[in-house]
Amino acid sequence: MLSVIIPTHNSEFALARCLAALVPGAIDGVVSEVIVADRASTDGTAKVADAAGCRLIAMDQPREARIEAGIAAIERGSWVLVLEPTVSLEPGWQNEVGAFIERTERAGRAGEQTAVFRFAFDEFVRPRRLSQAYVALRGHFLGLPVPEQGLLANRQALTAALAGKKRGRSGGLDGVISWRRLSVLRSRALVHPEQPA
């Protein structure tokens, strides 16, 4: 049902936390594969991906190019979730995603509708509360989610948007996001602070 793509770069500790939150989705049959699109990491990112049974795509390219390569490498899922390694989804996320996909497909809107998670920091301190409020307002008034909110979209819609970009039309990942077609799920994407170097 769902292929997860995680773009990484020296994300060993963050990736382990991110993947742990995906386990309930794999157990429930929502997650069918996880692709780690890595940019020349020098830490244990590749080992974490291998130990978790993920497919690894290693290429020294910018984030969007690695995500595009991940989409092209999908073998199973008809839906794609692009997720940052610094994010872990809160418990129960897979139930809501499964219901969203089922509802969208039943309505015949799979090629149009996209979704993101609510943005939240794992550590709740004052400056971060202001950041959460900023992201919420940005999403509400401008319809512009941040990468940490994830992106849930139909695989065919993403592939078509990327093909349009290659032909010189406006497209790419941003091409599938429209405030009219964007749903914000109740489940939160919990952003973890960066691991100290």
TrEMBL record:
This is Glycosyltransferase involved in cell wall biosynthesis. Residues 3-83 form the Glycosyltransferase 2-like domain. Its main location: membrane. It comes from Amorphus orientalis. Pfam families: Glycos_transf_2. The keyword Cell membrane applies. Coiled coil: none annotated. One of its GO terms (cellular component) is plasma membrane.
